[in-house]
């Protein structure tokens, strides 16, 4: 798997989606999809299950219209086959309550905006290690 791992990047800001996708590409990932909010992301995750092409890693913003990152995380945790997808939450600086709530809801790890490429790679590798997957390819 590794570089072919199917990653879903969810953020309501196009600029943030672009930044995360670029950093993932720099880390050697090629199979990246994006969604604009939790609802859009959930639809893509469910489609992946239906089409036997499951999302294998989720990177999601917290603050989004329609469905927040926390709502998405809680929804996934309540659906057995989806509960195990590694979930990296992106939170805004200074929102410690969000981090605590995300941890309580079972997030795999979190990264605080704005983050450097090094921090992003570190967080990716922490999540991958925690779920027993190979480290970032590049
Ligand atoms: Mg947002």
Report the C-alpha radius of gyration, rounded: 13 Å
Molecules bound to protein: magnesium ion
Helix content: 40-55%
Query: What's the structural domain tally?
Result: 1
Quick gist of this model?
The protein has 138 residues and is α/β, with parallel strands linked by helices.
Notes on the structure:
With 138 residues, this protein is of the alpha/beta class. Helices cover 42% and strands 16% of the residues. It has a five-stranded parallel sheet, with helices on both faces. Helix 2 (38-50) runs parallel beside helix 3 (69-77). The protein is globular and about 30 Å long. The relative contact order is 0.17. Magnesium ion is lined by residues 11-13, 61, 63-64.
What is this structure's SSE topology?
Layout: E1 7-10, H1 14-26, E2 32-35, H2 38-50, E3 57-61, H3 69-77, E4 87-91, H4 96-104, E5 109-112, H5 117-130
Parallel strand pairs: 1-2, 1-3, 3-4, 4-5
The chain binds magnesium ion.
Note the main attributes of this structure.
5-stranded parallel beta sheet, 138 residues, single chain, binds magnesium ion, 5 helices, Rossmann fold, alpha/beta
